[in-house]
Specification:
Cyclophilin-like_dom_sf, Peptidyl-prolyl cis-trans isomerase, rotamase, Alpha-Beta Plaits, single chain, Cyclophilin, 296 residues, RNA-binding, globular, 23% strand, 13 strands, alpha+beta
């Protein structure tokens, strides 16, 4: 039984061990059919060790099993299968991540090295990459920061189940199309684009690379948002003072009308202001008045 995983670096074919790991296999195959993994980042990559993904939040702390869809929050995780014993002896072994107390969810990793025996008896092997070793090599070559977060925006693009031996539970609804990228995915990635020449960062420290990416992202985000057309009741404000808060903006703009929400957009990791914000008014006329008044 196999699943085709299309990533932004290339394709992988994963053979799933249905006989040896029936519960893990069902979980993985049904999540793939639900397109749950589509657009998930490879949020952690350690050279010659693992590439981890399967968390829609991209934080390494999210995700849930297919059984949560079937049985509710109490089934977010399920107990790992540990028999028969399997070992992480070669590149391309696919394992579900142990979330603690031997419980598994949606996150999984693919080994990028050999003889990783310290992963045995902790995480649960359920498959093996049989095609796409060149893609694994590309994953292994990714430049990462000190927390093993890749600088490139590497994601799962699509998952295609080539063979499903399990019946489809009635409660599961499979989408007809892949999910669309969110605004945050398109604009607030804090990543090097796939088509960007990574050699531009050669010879620089991880801190210098991160600072350059931050400066580039701030400029690009402001430019994109200035060109975008927000709803009639939402005001986009840029070139803010770095110390300006949501509360400051609400005080300044509340004189134009009732405000539903003020939000200064911040970097996901550092929480530093990106120096632009959105202000949502209850009445579009208040938004228009604020725009013309503050633009003068």
């Amino acid at each position: 039984m196999a699943v085709l995983v299309e990533t932004t670096l290339g394709d992988l074919v994963i053979d799933v061990f249905v006989k040896e790991r029936p519960k893990c296999s069902l979980n993985f195959i049904k999540l793939c059919k639900m397109k749950y993994y589509n657009l998930c980042q490879f949020h952690t990559i350690e050279q010659n060790y693992i590439a981890q993904t399967g968390d829609p939040t991209g934080t390494g702390r999210g995700g849930e099993s297919i059984f949560m869809t079937l049985y509710g929050e109490q089934a977010r995780y399920f107990e790992r299968e540990d028999l028969p014993k399997m070992k992480h002896t070669r590149m391309g072994v696919v394992s579900f991540v142990n979330n603690g107390d031997n419980m598994l969810g949606s996150q999984f990793f693919i080994t990028l090295g050999e003889n990783l025996d310290y992963l045995d008896d902790k995480h649960t092997i359920f498959g093996q990459v049989t095609e796409g070793l060149d893609t694994l090599e590309k994953l292994n070559e990714q430049l990462c920061d000190g927390d093993h977060k890749p600088y490139r925006d590497v994601r799962i693009a699509h998952t295609i189940v080539l063979d499903d031996p399990f019946e489809d539970p009635h409660r599961i609804k499979y989408p007809r199309r892949s999910p669309s990228p969110t605004f945050e995915m398109l604009v607030q990635t804090n990543k090097i684009a796939l088509d960007e020449n990574i050699d531009d960062y050669e010879g620089k420290t991880a801190e210098e690379v991160a600072e350059e990416i931050k400066k580039r992202d701030m400029a690009e985000q402001a430019q994109i948002l200035e060109m975008a057309a927000p709803p009639d009741n939402v005001l986009f404000v840029c070139k803010l003072n770095p110390v300006t808060t949501d509360e400051d903006l609400e005080i300044i703009f509340s004189r134009f009308g009732k405000i539903i929400k003020c939000e200064v957009i911040r970097d996901r990791r550092s929480q530093q202001s990106l120096q632009y914000a959105f202000i949502e008014f209850e009445d579009p006329k208040s938004c228009e008045q604020a725009f013309f008044k503050m633009d003068n």
